[in-house]
Structures are given as C-alpha cells and as structure tokens.
C-alpha cells in the first residue's frame, strides 16, 4: 500500500478521523502523520497535521479539557518539533514488507486440546523457556477452529470457539463447544509449541460469518495471540 491507501484504510477503521469536533480528532491526525513520516511514507496526513498545528485547534481543545498552562506550553513545543519533522520530505527508506502471506498453522474445523492450570489459563507463550513461570497443569481445555484468513491479504488470523473439560475425546469436545462464543487471535509456531496444543481431529462445525475487517486488522496489527482467548484469567483454584 502507498500512503494514500494506508490513510484511507485507517480512516475507515477510525470514525474519529472524520469528526473535527471530537477531542481525539487532532490526536488521530498528528499520530498518523508522525507514524507515516518515520518510515518515509508520504500522504495527505502530514498536510492535515500541519494545518491542525497551525490553527491551534489541538491546543484550544486541550485547554477546554482542562490542561494546565504549563502543560500547554510543553505541548506547544512538542507540536512545533512535530511540525518541523513532518514538514520535511519523508526520509528515503527501504520499507520492510512481507513478501508473501503468513502461513496458516491451523485449519478450519480442526479441534485441539491444551493444558490449563488452576486458574483455567493456558501456558503463557510470551515467556521464553528460560523465564517461564511455574505452570502446574490441573486440567484441559479444547477449541475448534471456526474460521481462518488473512487480514490485508497477508496477516494470518484464527477464529476459535472454546470449552474446558478434563482431557476430552474429539466427540466430547465438539459436543460442548458453542460456535456462537468465539474470538479471534494470532498464532506462531513458537506459541503453539509452548501452549502444547494437541490436535484431536476435525469436525464439521458451522463457521458462521467471518469477522469484520476492523476486527481482523486490529487483532493482527496488535498481534494478539490466541492465548488471550484460551485463558480464564480467574483467581487460583477456580479450575477444578
């Protein structure tokens, strides 16, 4: 995507971009202009941000919201630095982009089991083996892959419907999974290994409509692992 396509995309995802009277309108355009300037991507966002800085609309809004005079001065200095940065031609940088879509590590209708602790949480895959906190397995969870896809044609996502039981057979897992209760997340081979996912088999489960572009782009852009969907975040001893 070029800068104009990126701006159109983020405007579609964030309605505040079209609401000049909203308190977050200026912040939106200032951030987009700054983030596109850094990797050398030219767009109309830079001109919008310069106009916001020059007409003092951001400072006026912050004053209405109660920002102190001292903080307004700091903000003004920051805006002046930002204006200088985005007024310059974007740096000529080689953009690092994916050459092909990320591989899909799970298939639709596959059913997995995974160990959980006394809180009903799966293994936290964000920790390395060397720093992994003590994990004492107390039971099992299970999920079915309802949908898979690629946000923006490149970023892999997975939609899961889950349940929790003692280690279930395929049929028992499918019997208690509610496809209406599902969420989406990302997955890497490393995370799959750390969470000790075990493929039970596959089952014909109604997938329903795919998630919205806003949900899949937001999830993949933030790289929200499916581990967030597979944990209860309850107090210790909740899981029996």
Low-confidence stretches: none
Radius of gyration: 23 Å
The structural domain count equals 2
Shape: elongated
Mean of residue pLDDT? 88
Query: What is the rounded distance between the termini?
Result: 49 Å
Strand content: 15-25%
**Largest sheet strand order:** 4-3-2-1-5
Helical fraction: 25-40%
Q: Major sheet: size, sense and barrel closure?
A: 5 strands, antiparallel
How many helix segments?
8
- Helices and strands, in order, run as HHHHHEEEHEHEH
DSSP strand tally? 5
Briefly note the structural class of the backbone: alpha+beta
Can you offer a commentary on this structure?
- The protein is of the alpha+beta class and 240 residues long.
- The protein has two domains: 3-87, no CATH class; 110-228, no CATH class.
- It contains eight helices and five strands; from the N terminus they run H-H-H-H-H-E-E-E-H-E-H-E-H.
- It has helices at 3-13, 25-37, 44-54, 57-64, 69-87, 170-176, 189-194, 213-222, and strands at residues 110-116, 139-151, 155-165, 182-185, 198-202.
- A five-stranded antiparallel sheet has the order 4-3-2-1-5.
- Strand 2 and strand 3 (155-165) form a beta hairpin.
- Helix 2 packs across helix 3 (44-54) and helix 3 (44-54) runs antiparallel to helix 5 (69-87).
- The longest helix is centred in the N-terminal third of the chain and has 19 residues, at 69-87.
- The protein is elongated.
